Amino acid sequence: MKIEVSGKGGSGKSTVSVLLARAMRTLGYRVLLVDGDESNIGLEMLVIGKIHHFGEGCVCPMGVLSKKFLASLETGEKEIVLVDAEAGVEHFGRGIVGECDLILGVVDPTAESFQLADKMARMAARANKKIRFVLNKVEPEIEAVMKQKLTAARVIGMIPKDHLIFMESLEGKALTRILPEVDAISREILMDDDPSS
What is the Cα–Cα distance from 155 to 105, expressed in whole angstroms? Predict the structure, then answer.
């Protein structure tokens, strides 16, 4: 199964990708984590192109390479490819999502994130791709409001705002926190593997 993790910048896509990869490995899956996000620095993933110097040019060729790589990559039983996509929806325009079985939108508690989630849902429908959402950085005071802003059937879980994860990320440390919510989201994704729904 190939899964693209999408959302707005700062929503927690990279963190969620790493946490999901670890949880899926614990469940006995082989997981390849692909860094399709130009802003990720210091995360250990298969990296497809980065801009390192002034004047290097556009990352568009990396989008073409990503699409070809994902198209040629075959997954077997109990094998997962998680693609941490760049922020926004440019990867939809490049057709990279067409090579994935599931689009997983990460939504944080901002109006921009919900607007982008709506746009991603419309684009996924046009591409005939399944999309599900994870509500991230959820606090009890805003949980109900966040749940109202998306179609309930598409929301497969919520990850609470977590100070330890924030501090590990801020300090550039490996993420050590294990959250039962992430384990539950992983199981939901793995059970919901029919790309036609």
Answer: 9
Q: Tell me if 128 sits within 8 A of 101, measured CB to CB.
A: no
Locate 182 and state its tokens.
């992430």
What is the C-alpha to C-alpha distance for residues 178 and 5, in angstroms, rounded to an integer? Answer: 19
Model confidence pLDDT, tens digit, residues 152-187: 889 999 999 999 999 988 888 888 889 999 999 999
In this structure, whether the domain defined by 2-191 belongs to CATH 3.40.1190.20 is answered with no
Token pair for 134: 């994870």
Global confidence as pTM: 0.81
In the chain, domain spans: 2-191
- Token representation of residue 72: 């040629």
Q: Whole-angstrom Cα distance, residue 19 to residue 165?
A: 10
